[in-house]
Design brief:
By secondary structure, the protein is mainly β. It has one domain. Helices cover 5% and strands 43% of the residues. The longest helix has 9 residues, at 132-140. It is globular and about 55 Å long.
Length: 371
Amino acid sequence: MVRRHTGAIAALALAGLTAFGVAAAHEETTTVRWGPIDLPAATEEGPGELWNEIAGLSGLRAAVIDGITGSGDFEVNKPCEDCYIVGIKPNLVLENGETANFNNGVMLHHVVNLNFSNPDVTCRPSIFSPQPIKLLGALAGGNERIFAAGNERTAGQLTDDYGYYLAEGDHLGLIYHLMNMNPEPKTVYFEYTFIYQDAADHDLDSVRPIWMDVDQCGTSTVSVPAGYSDVTWDWQSDRTHRLVGAGGHIHNYGINVAWTNTSTSETLCNSLAGYEKGSPYKPVGPGTGDSDAHPEYPETVDSHRLGLENYEGNIATMSICTPGRDAPKTARRDEMRLNAQIYRPDQGYHDMGIMVGFMDEKFCLTDFWCF
């Protein structure tokens, strides 16, 4: 059975869409592990790192990518086939199943879930770009970014009978950046719990991911000076759609990430960073407060599903937006803007501002020929 997109998607970008709840009677739940991943030990020069390795490739593709950025030597198994993904709970764990976090010297800097079988909406495959994410798409037939997580690991779940369709022939992969602050090597695994519905039994409205990034098609990192920064990226919508859910990702000292339709002056999602009370990594100054996309302050949180104490004051949450079918319409050719507010005590060289959302498209004849 082949099912085309009848809508559109992506959540957490490195965040999630709604609270991860108990699966309904017609939904299935499964947990998958991807790995093992051997992290090098920290040295006097800094943490042991695996920076933007790509897993899920084989043969010539793996050899080419390994020469560019490095490849993970493990398969990225699908949680289901011919199914709709409606919920995702990401995590990084040690060999014994314990969550890997700052409390035991490991950081999930970021992980991006890819579907190599579909092209990406905002970063189309091209052999003329030096960036691995675009080159990978050209070699592998597409590199749709379908989900992502930072160390905050916000869970996501689609609502209102929306789902991300996963076909039998779809080929999944990962891009990840992991850090080890320990003086000895560590072995870790990605551990994801999925909630899904079988397509044979349930006909949900399919959604398509959309990735918004202050360094779109690049490494997703930017340098910002000490003090206040508002980093932006603009995109003209190439299709009529509704953003039915979204979440953001930002680093320490970040205030928020927002997605705005500047043609209609509507802020479609404002994703606030969350820190524990007294955190030394909270922004050192306020945002401008002059619009929904520019709030003054992040959130103060007092709990986390993985244990707030494990974060040791680092950014622990990103708020999410879940308008569902009540989301306002974005017209084709509307001007869109992503902005990320950051207030640092010193210069930052690898800051991020990302939002991943799910689109319910009006009508597309192909992946890029839409109304």
